[in-house]
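hey m, so remember when u said the tokens were messed up on ur end? i reran from scratch. heres the input so u can diff it against urs
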Amino acid sequence: MVSQTIEVHYDTTVPVSGHCTANKSFTIDLYVPLTPTDTTSSATAINTVQVEANGGTVTNLKGYTYYYNGVDRGDSTTYKINHNDPERIAPDGTRIKIVSVMVKMLMVVRRP
């Protein structure tokens, strides 16, 4: 955790000359990068993608949320490829499914 302070100083000359200053202290948790990793292996079921996240800030109540092709799949690290998933055709005619994975984590804000 890092303690920070913001100070605002305001000066005025019209219609009354004067100034004021205000301070506000707050705490920021140190940033821990979130790293998603493709953990798909030969032991993973056919037509399945597996991704696991590490790092970031999680709690016992809320961990990572996984999104596959823009759909919230909760805390599921495994995704079964769907016939509706986007695809591209390779030069040899092979269909290649495209699976976009995004992982989000709960942001924790603490106030003094």
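this time it looks ok to me. The CA atoms of residues 66 and 73 lie 6 Å apart. if urs says something different then somethings off w ur setup not the seq
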